[in-house]
Fold these 3 entries.
Entry 1:
Amino acid sequence: MEPKLNVAKDCFVENVETFADPETQAEKFNLYNGLANLVEGVQELKKAIYQIQQAGLVEGVAQLKKELANVRKAGLVEGVEEIKKELIKIRHELGHTRVSVREELNQLRVMLDKARRR
């Protein structure tokens, strides 16, 4: 997605430089210049959303690890279902792929298996 935004911005900037003289063609200049700035704004928003998602994921995983520690202490296997539900909830909220969630879930299962063996 990002390459398309870069191409769009480059095209708008090129149009400003090639076809839009601010003195004689102010309307074209404003249009192309505005579109280039709009693309830049979209890129900044995408970056901010990604940072928010990453922060949320880290927080969610930390919460799941705390829950796993509680499961270990209590020796309750039923807690695994709660962990799965939380992990799925985080995935939906943050829009992450099933692969990353599966990896996290597998790590949590391994940790739970170790806890059960103790």
Note: The chain has one domain: 2-117.
Entry 2:
Amino acid sequence: MKFIISSMSMAMFIGKDYDLKVHELTEDEFHAIAYDGISHIGHHDIAEITNFAYNKTPVQVRPGDILLVAQKYHGVLRFHCIQMFESESPLFREEELLIEEEVY
């Protein structure tokens, strides 16, 4: 499914292990991809600017779903496509600890 949104949280993603792929889009690319998506835009101003319906209902994203995000960032409307995939290599606690050690 394709969902058009204006904000997101990790609670939207169903499942434990998944990968997200994020692409920045132009406004034209966003509209070309979003034409058959389901609007869940929860901000009136962004719904009006993008010409999609205001619909502040929760979204649950599963592997294979696509999020089309229209968000204001420092006053500029930006567009992204987020694809959710089942993870091919879930992290294990030992790997997480190694990552934390490298970062800090």
Note: Strands lie at 2-5, 18-25, 38-40, 66-73, 76-86.
Entry 3:
Amino acid sequence: MAQSDSENPPPDRWLPVVARSLAYLCITTPANRHAAQREKARLLDALGLPRSDTAALLNITDDVLRQSISQAKRKGQRKRGKKA
């Protein structure tokens, strides 16, 4: 009894699901649970998660996400002594 393709989707269809699940786990670990929203946004952006998915995980809009990532990057540059 062979299973049809509709019952077993190809692995590449599961990759986005796995990526979103791992991203969720990253932001809900005890170390990151109380981190600022912009730090979580920057982490998810660095992991390569699409901004729409990042915004959905953080329950914010794409515009707010863009601003949060920008602020986090500027804050990081100031800590290293660079101009924003």
Note: The mean pLDDT is 80.
